[in-house]
Each structure stands twice: as C-alpha cells, then as structure tokens.
Amino acid sequence: SQQGEEDPQALSIQEGENATMNCSYKTSINNLQWYRQNSGRGLVHLILIRSNEREKHSGRLRVTLDTSKKSSSLLITASRAADTASYFCATDAKNSGSRLTFGEGTQLTVNP
Amino acid sequence: NAGVMQNPRHLVRRRGQEARLRCSPMKGHSHVYWYRQLPEEGLKFMVYLQKENIIDESGMPKERFSAEFPKEGPSILRIQQVVRGDSAAYFCASSPKRTGGEFQGQPQHFGDGTRLSIL
To answer: Is the Cβ of B34 closer than 8 Å to some Cβ of chain A?
Structure first.
C-alpha cells in the first residue's frame, strides 16, 4: 500500500449521522493534514495535526493521530448534505522537503 | 484576498502540441507547488518552486515537463509534445513559507486546477 492510504474508499450515510474516515501511512512524519475536494474543484485545507499531537478539534471535525500505528482518523459529526465531497489525508514526511503525499481519498456521500 | 488562481480552467490540446499552465499564488506567498491528479486518484507531487528557484523536482517526469516561477509573473508548468497520458487535472498550491521540516507544518492553499485533455 502507498503512503497516505484512506479507508474506506467510499462512504454513504444519512444526514445527522457521523462519518469516520481512516488514513494509514508508512514513513515518519512532521505532520498530517486533511483536505476536502468538491467535484471539479481544488482542495480545501481542513485541519493539520502535528506529530507530537494526538487529537485535534475544529468545529464538527475531530482528527486523531497515532504515530505508533502510523494512522489517523477524521470524524465528521452531525453530517450535512453539504459535507458530500472527497476527503484526502496528506503527509508531510520527515526529510521530504515540503512536498505533501496524498492518499487516494474517501468519497463521502451524505444523503438528505 | 484572492486565492490561488490557475488558468486556464480547461485546456484541450492535440498530441504533439505544447501545454502551458499558469498559476498565480496567493498574495504574499513565495512558495509554489504543482501536483497532478488522475481521475479517481489522489494528488501526486510534481515540483516545488520558490521565486526563480526550483527547490524539489523529484516528481517531475524527466522529459517534456518543465516548471518555472520567475521574479515577476505567475508560475508556469510547461508540457511539450503532449501525449494522451498527460490528460489529468493539474493543481497548483502556494504557501507563505516552507510548509515542512523545522516549521512543523503549514497548510498549502490550492487553486481550482487546470483540466488538461489531450485529443
């Protein structure tokens, strides 16, 4: 598997439910970031968690990071139809310069 | 504040032609990154530039692809003699300073991309 691999590939839920997406990676990182992409648009930064942090919150978003397992999760609570998008994790690996390595993404569909 | 501006949004070229993609970073940003996205896939890093310098081009194909970020004007990603496999969405991102290493992380700000189609 490649760096920054999301699971599941696709997720369909009803409005009001919570959505959880997972990301696994391989190398040591400086930080891990989550981005959102609406169809036909660019990526929008959601949240950044540093390697020395374990959990971070931003509004309805909660991100966890487990560096021992090289994994992260993104939780969206009380989902809305407008949350429908693709979600990507991206790792800023140590000694990688400034490039981000993206996973393949999770396509989230929130049904009204 | 204008975000990262990319143009054109859509570009159609025939095989063998040249494609020039432009990116104007956010105001105050001097670091530019180019990524390529194939359908149903994540973004793949291509090149990282600062004004007048290529910092990391480890993701760039060795032939036909080049990038620049001149002192004045936008960053340009140039693809010569395009082939069908070059069809993809090309995204540019910018940041005010380096986003990795000792700075412990800053987000990159993305444009809406250029969708390149090769006939």
So the answer is: no
